[in-house]
Amino acid sequence: MKILVINAGSSSIKYQLYNMKDESVLASGRVERIGTESAIVTHEPAAGPGVREVSGILDHVTAVRRVLDLLLHREHGVVASIAEIEAVGHRVVHGGETFKASVLVDDEVKRSIRDLFDLAPLHNPAALMGINAVEQNMPNMPQAVVFDTAFHQTMPRHAYLYPIPMALYRRHKIRRYGFHGTSHFYVSERAAEMIGRPIAELKMITCHIGNGASCTAIQGGKSIDTSMGLTPLEGLMMGTRSGDIDPAVVPFVMSKEELTLGEVNSMLNKHSGMLAISGFSGDMREIVEAMEDGDRNAKLAFDMFCYRLRKYVGAYAAAMNGLDVLVFTAGIGENSAHVRKAVCEGLTFLGVQLDETANQRHSKDARFISAPDSRVKVLVVPTNEELIIARDTFRLVSERKAAGDSPVSRGQ
């Protein structure tokens, strides 16, 4: 079975086509700047020449049509017919309390995604556009949705509730949801496999740190707490997001600077974090380079980032009454030996001992970076959210077929 995985943004679509027989990627690519006459299309088949072109693509329907044209292309394509693609899987950021697992798309699922627009105004509308675009280009194609929040639905009430009036939770479902769940799930499973122990026996902290960053406490294979909250703004310091701050800062700054709600929201999401402290960038690579050249603000941004991450690791070790495994993933976690070293050097009280040679070694493969005698195993595990989406889509469609039902999405 071949599965097309789509991650739709408001002005972009990323895609991968999987052959589920061996879970190999047949082709991948992206369409950027959707809605303009200068959209950028990149298509990379696993074998053979790729494509990069600029053309007018004014909506997601046209973008998906272009993706399908490239997958079928005589020179650059990887399938002979659309019929070879048996299902499409989508990443959806917010599933609220409605979705605790991945599901096949039907009209009710689409209504539920729409009902959650207020909780993820930048992401859920784009995901729904991607689903509708596939429906228009591939009628009767079964589609599945995999939610970033679903993995965190195992959090206990004392972890996900905020200490605010319960009426706000009952009326508006204001609570911690967490994000990056697909990534945290994948790397935790992969880490347990590498260690050779059942995940049910392990106390693990996974650090998904890129431009967006989150930390999750995983006990017995289940998320029991995570740093992001109602939105992806809470928690760790990030590239351009503030992470945790005193909530009184918001009305204080609005009053002093005469900012609107939209302006202060933009400040916290787009003009804070490492960008605000360094004064020039939210990219950890640029910050480390400037820090090594003596830039004091870059050094401060680096120290704040690592300090706040280390605090979360310590807090989650306390929440689980111990720690067996620490995992780094995503852009910074996979590539910044500086960050991993700074974080681990402050965790020796937990039994973390870093192997400096292993930590400095550059590799795209999952690997151990802890010393052989380290009580806590420390790993770098490249994330693969698209593979989880493909696997869940494959499983759901296969179960539908095995049950004797039509594999097409209900309501279509």
From TrEMBL:
Assigned EC number: 2.7.2.1
Keyword Transferase belongs to the record: yes
Known pathway: Metabolic intermediate biosynthesis; acetyl-CoA biosynthesis; acetyl-CoA from acetate: step 1/2
Cofactor(s) needed by this chain: Mg(2+); Mn(2+)
Catalysed reaction, written as an equation: acetate + ATP = acetyl phosphate + ADP
Keyword terms of this UniProt record: ATP-binding, Cytoplasm, Kinase, Magnesium, Metal-binding, Nucleotide-binding, Transferase
Signal peptide positions (record): none
Name used for this protein in its record: Acetate kinase
Species: Thermobacillus xylanilyticus
Name of the gene: txxe 2541-ackA
